[in-house]
Design a protein that fits this description.
Chain lengths: 296, 208
Amino acid sequence: MRRFISSLFRALGNLRQSWVVSTITTAIISICLFLVGGYILMIHNIDNIMENMQGDVRVTIYLRDGFPMSDTNFLQDRLTGLAEVESVTYTSKSDALVEFRSMLGNDEDLLEGMDEIPLPASLRLTPKPEYRTSEGIHSILGKIGDDSLVEDIQYGEDWLGRLEKVLVVLNTGAVVLGGILSLAAIFIIANTIKLTVLARRDELEIMRLVGATEAFIRTPFLIEGLIQGLTGAIFSLGFLVLLHKFVVKGLAATVFDIIGIRSLEFLSTNIMIAILLSGMFLGGIGSIASVGRFSR
Amino acid sequence: MIQLFHVSKWYQKDVPALQDTNILIPKGEFVFITGASGAGKSTLLKLLFGDERPTSGQILVHGRNIARLSKSKIPTLRREIGVVFQDFKLLSSRNVFDNVALALEVLGMPRREIGRRVFSMLKRLGIHHKMRANPLTLSGGEQQRVAIARALVNEPLIVLADEPTGSLDQEVSEHIMNIFSDVNARGTTVVVATHNLDMVKTMGRSPP
């Protein structure tokens, strides 16, 4: 414990002594983690928007006229019992007309003079979230089967197909771009730390000359790396909070309405902890590895 | 006691730095190693403090075969050997006191004891009044005295000096050599590598 405290004091002394280089290293770690964190934040919110759009997936089953209500209830119960289905609601002809009127708004007088309601009754089926895909919907359609009560089924097949294609491209792009960005960040941080250690190679040589053990030499470098990494990560999270607030404030509520979300979410606690640990890991391991490169 | 048995060191094929070298240096001796530049003087010293390993042969330092010494044991060896270089090898980021203290810090010595020993050593070498100075602000002779203080402060059994006066004028060189004589008189084995035969003669010994 005494040795650790001694190493801690030496590390703090070194950071104070070479504060310019330490600040630059911390700033570079901070910028790299900010870019990676910002990217994760962006992908996280795009995912939310996409999930929100997938949440709109509904299956509308239009019913033939002239069947007794008991047949409709039977079909509704059967569909509600399916494992893939979250809920099924019945919309009568008159309900459909009310909805249609409200959709027409000022043009509702177009409907005047109609003796009969032209709109069919329907069952609106909401699949469970994991079945809101083309595959999931097809599975539900297969279970509805041929029923003489069903006149037509609609679920926006084209729209859902396009959304799924966009999701595949986005997810693949996110992984590739995220990987490249992370590798670039690791490369930049590792090289920055290597240069700072290189600048102190005389110190390493002299410490070895006077009989310092590798643990004595490396422990303060490890502590310095951990402190720089953690500080850089904390600053990167601080900048991300500011960026998030700035973007949320900049986007009007109407923009959120259009894209179908209430607001932009910030990073989850797990991701924030991961960023802090990444900073410490990169700083600590980078330092130790760099010192090791200059050992004989 | 230092013993070399048939020691050879090759950095490159066909270019030996040392070849089949046999040396016996009894404990408490003052020995000069002389020769032209490139004769292998520095290599010999590097072999003695474990900075290089022999290509062949055995090296015994106080009964320990350092040719077979594991990497983790080298710090222990170096704590028994003080090394002085022509270019001083002082840290410009530390003051005189802290440069000397480094040799005791690596031993895990309490700070108060370090302070007492470092001050005592700087006083012995006559540079205690400069202990808060940056080494770069000192003269060559003063810097070399700081380097000697660092080499001696943990009371090593052996002191190795590689051209310790190579960059100093005659008067300062004599002063530095007198310090080594004084160290030797206290029982420490001193090995000085130099190409300066005049200095060897001035010290009153013949080259080996």
